[in-house]
Structure of Phosphate regulon sensor protein PhoR:
Amino acid sequence: MYEPYPVPELARDHKKSRYSSLRTFAKQDLKLLAFLLIIAAFIGYGTGYFLLCAVFAFAVFFAFQLYSLYLVNEWISNRPYEVPPNLNGIWGALLFNFYRAQRQERVVQAEMVGLIDRAQSSLVALAEAVVLTDELHQIEWANPAAEALLGIQALDRGRNLLTILRHPRFIEYFSHIDQYPDGIRVKLSIEDEKYVQIKLTRFGSESLLLVAYDVTRMQNLEQMRKDFVDNISHELRTPLTVLSGYIETFTDQEDISPRWKRAFDQMQSQTRRMNALVNDLLLLSRLENEKQIPKNQIIEMPSLMNQLFDDAQAYNADYGHTLNLEIDSHYDLIGSDMEIASAFSNLITNAIKYTPKGGSITIGWHDDGEQAYFSVEDTGIGINPKHLPRLTERFYRVDSARSRQSGGTGLGLAIVKHVLMQHAAHLEVESVENQGSVFKAVFPKSALYFVD
Ligand code: ADP
């Protein structure tokens, strides 16, 4: 480890500080010269060689200056970190000022080294893996946790990060860092199977800081939760089908008393709700398990939009809204038609449900050359801005009673969010309470297919 040079005490600081100005020191030299010249004048007066004595005095003064210069050079070359020789005159001032500047610099340097040392030892103690790479993505430094978590050893210094972390998802992340603001979660199997959350941050010109931590426990808990919801939804399906079958048979009977009829009608609407809930839960769990969904179909947007519009008109029968359809984009979508249709249809039914009778709803497909938008605009009840950040959470409702009354499961927007995520798209919502809302599904160019 780098040891800072010991900083010696400046023994004569207090004395020298009085003379640190160059002018004061120059006066000392002048006094010496004057002293030598006076002596030379006396000797010259006594001997009669006045000029010779003066030249000799100058020569002594010059020799003294040369000797001082020799001492200065000797100190700078051989022992610059020790206390400088005690010189008077202009050389003494130069030496002192040089030594003081150098000492201050060493104090700052020692502080910096101490700071770096402290930062380094705290990084070494971290349970999170920390790796630094240079502009060429070669590993410069890694803490011990990086070995346990990512398999990066001390010997790997100087090697390219991508030759060690070769997981396809990491390579993809590495080339598009900005597209993953929260980093990525990957499954690594160094000894046991581990799930690791990795985040890359750029610093300096092109250097990278990698921070990774173990999320295996969190991943297992999440998986347990998903499996539980998936299993319970599957288990509920069969009893629900049997119940709805019987309830339907009873409801259809003609000799049934009005009291029982009302009871069966209610049972039927509740079993329908439960069915819708189970179906939505199963769809969500399928969406979370990304691999099962093929996302390479070309979805013909004009035909999908017309289909959605026809369905909307049927659903609109009880509401009497004015429905409009706008298609002015030549792009088709690349993805999974069933999931996309289900997401768009959720947005449309929401607009119809949450708009008081006789409103206006516009369904649109537009693009700006870079991105394409599926939008649903309504003149409905709107949403207070404070609800917007949580709107796509499962079972999050602005008004629970209203949502239940309109047959909502509270999962519609969660499904929309997941479907869009799978298509590299996202949802934008603009809404003003009591005026209406615009829900926009925004698709990047990578999910679009241009049709002439
Ligand atoms: P729900 O089944 O309750 O409709 P969603 O997930 O589809 O569940 O929507 C969540 C909540 O967002 C709804 O309960 C409703 O409060 C609000 N919401 C969704 N769409 C609209 C809309 N177009 N206008 C006003 N509120 C809406």
Notes: The pocket of adenosine-5'-diphosphate is lined by residues 346, 350-351, 354, 378, 380-383, 391, 396-399, 403, 408-414, 437 (CB under 6 Å). The chain has a mean pLDDT of 88. DSSP finds 13 helices and 13 strands in the chain. The CA atoms of residues 346 and 412 lie 6 Å apart.
